[in-house]
């Protein structure tokens, strides 16, 4: 029951880590306004400014990150929601809501943010006016998202006033009808002509310095189609470019030369202002790359760099006492400048025009600009800088982008192919396109007559979001320096040419190898190589999981006595290097010489010779007794495995010491920290822990019963007969309980 109250207003709220939920929520907000709802759009963390507690009709779009964590830009909101709903079954009885969750079933706790939000709001008396949608990136989220949005409108019209009149329950309007069957080979849409004054695009990139990668897609199934249907609607333009007045232009040009030398957005002061109150610990600031070194050998599979980032005095003061070993920080990185230049060239924007300052205005004054473009409404920037710093040119394309690009083609063949890619008939081709991880430049080159305006592209691409890295030192050691270890992300994809013949090995058949690079790490590497000092824009990232060592419990300064197990293969070891520094400092500072509580590190690498990260530091801690035990695994080094009797992976090492691990967790109140890859290692270690607990408790039924009594009744999977004293489902519940009690902490990275 949603009640009879019809709200004059609707709020569309989002929490987004990579910009997807932000883009989707903006499209919902825009469509709501166009349909006649009085809609507003906000990020959850601005809850005070938009008065969340007074809202009555809300549409949430929320994503999930890491190990089921909410996005950073909802951290403040969660704290307030928890407080407001604690023990109250009516705190939000006035609220009607709908939730669209974005997630990925490759990771544990699928769509946990949406699920948690739903549960908490319902428990506090709120009503869902429309069933929640959970979109899975593993299988392609677009279908769920589109269908959910389509069904939202009639549901929303029942609880909120719509000046355009309520749509019918089937939510089909004229625009959808027009799109339902697009004839193959139809004339290009009006407005598809190349931009005035632009040269026709050459197929080879027109001498652009950045190489595009040809896409290998099979459009042959199109031949059998009479019509293409189910492509998304074309969103109306959001932004219009405006030239600034003479004074603003003069100010712009006088500031420009000083900014060229900094590796940060020209509006970096504005980034700090836009990120929240200036006294927030996560306020961005410029910091110098003080040193850089490669810490993997030349034959290692990955190139791992260790950078030292020196905090300027004011910033070090600002974050003093607010950061700890285990925290991470964000780096604001640009797109590859050559990619930006080549993209602008491909769009027909000449070098002069690309550097001219422009302002962005809302194409419809009733609709707010997307958050990452709002600053350009007040202060001009060049198209080049806007594309360089704010639009993600490498994110997997969304169907709506392809739909708009289709309308920007002057050749029917290009238009049809783009329509096919985003249609109901082309999901296989769409998946293949995304699998090839194309840049927007690759897509433009694959459809030579496609010539959207740069501003249209800018508004359709997701925001370029900062990248996070763990700090691998402790403040006791160096208060004004953050050390960071990361792999330079460069990899090759195998792409099968659909036109090659597998039977003829001479025709170049077999997969082609396509090189791809990350956005931030190759850029940091290039900066670190420069002779001139480099500054980057960074910000402390809120540590939502409290992934930290507990502080000394007593005033004598002696460390927390509980044993600590740390599991971190590869660069997942980074925060533990800081933990060990912290522990060393605590032991040194203790009033009485303290016995070091047990610390046990499980580290994994490929070979002993090439990628045993921080080896000297780790072995030094072992020698000094700060680290009590060390288990190192070598996944691709049979000799080292034999020599050290080491298993392949960290979870294998834990299983090989299963009784000790179980005893520490069950009988000695140990803390377990896991850091690294969420998809593989994080899940596997969790499974290994469940096995360890079940196995250990199999011969201790009394202890198993005692533990089971603390757990909610477990629902056994259908058909599973599990007579163990502690079933596997109960073991998983126990792990979840320890997570809630902050004894089992995971810092998992997607
Ligand atoms: P990596 O080099 O890919 O792998 C390290 C070791 O883990 C290798 O021996 C690898 O073996 C093994 N491994 C592969 N699959 C595994 C599994 N399912 N279970 C256990 N071990 C497995 O590690 P990495 O690239 O450094 O990745 C670490 C993760 O930590 C990344 O997700 C990264 O984002 C994250 N992280 C980064 C930072 C940072 O600040 N840069 C901080 C914390 C965490 P094989 O390859 O031989 O199979």
Offer a quick outline of the entry.
With about 750 residues, the protein is of the alpha/beta class. About 35% of the residues lie in helices and about 20% in strands.
Describe the 3D structure:
The protein is built from 27 helices and 24 strands. Among the domains are: 3-180, 3-Layer(aba) Sandwich (Rossmann fold); 268-333 and 466-544, Elongation Factor Tu (Ef-tu), domain 3; 564-749, Rossmann fold. The chain is globular. Mean pLDDT is 88; it is low at 168-208. The strands form six sheets. Strands 1, 2, 3, 4, 5 and 6 form a six-stranded parallel beta sheet that branches. With 750 residues, the chain is of the alpha/beta class. It is 36% helix and 18% strand. Bound molecules: NADP nicotinamide-adenine-dinucleotide phosphate. NADP nicotinamide-adenine-dinucleotide phosphate (NAP) binds next to strand 15, strand 16, strand 21, helix 23 and strand 23. NADP nicotinamide-adenine-dinucleotide phosphate is lined by residues 302, 469-470, 484-487, 569-572, 574, 604-606, 635-636, 649-651, 675-677, 680-681, 684, 749.
* CATH fold-type name of the domain at 564-749: Rossmann fold
* Cα shape: globular
> Which oligomeric form is depicted?
single chain
> Which ligands, by name, code or SMILES, are bound?
NADP nicotinamide-adenine-dinucleotide phosphate
Radius of gyration: 28 Å
- Give me the number of helical elements: 27
Q: Assign the structural class, choosing from mainly alpha, mainly beta, alpha/beta, alpha+beta, or little secondary structure.
A: alpha/beta
Tell how many strands the DSSP assignment holds. Answer: 24
> What is the class of the domain at 564-749 in the CATH system?
Alpha Beta
Query: What's the rounded overall pLDDT mean?
Result: 88
What is the CATH architecture term of the domain at 564-749?
Answer: 3-Layer(aba) Sandwich
Q: Runs with pLDDT <50, length 5+? A: 168-208
Classify the beta-strand content into a percent band: 15-25%
Largest sheet: 6 strands, parallel
The CATH superfamily of the domain at 564-749 is known as Nucleotide-binding domain of ferredoxin-NADP reductase (FNR) module
**First-residue to last-residue Cα separation:** 39 Å
Percent of residues in helices:
25-40%
Organism: Coemansia javaensis
Biased composition (Low complexity): 186-203
Domain FAD-binding FR-type: 282-550
Pfam families: FAD_binding_1 (PF00667), Flavodoxin_1 (PF00258), NAD_binding_1 (PF00175)
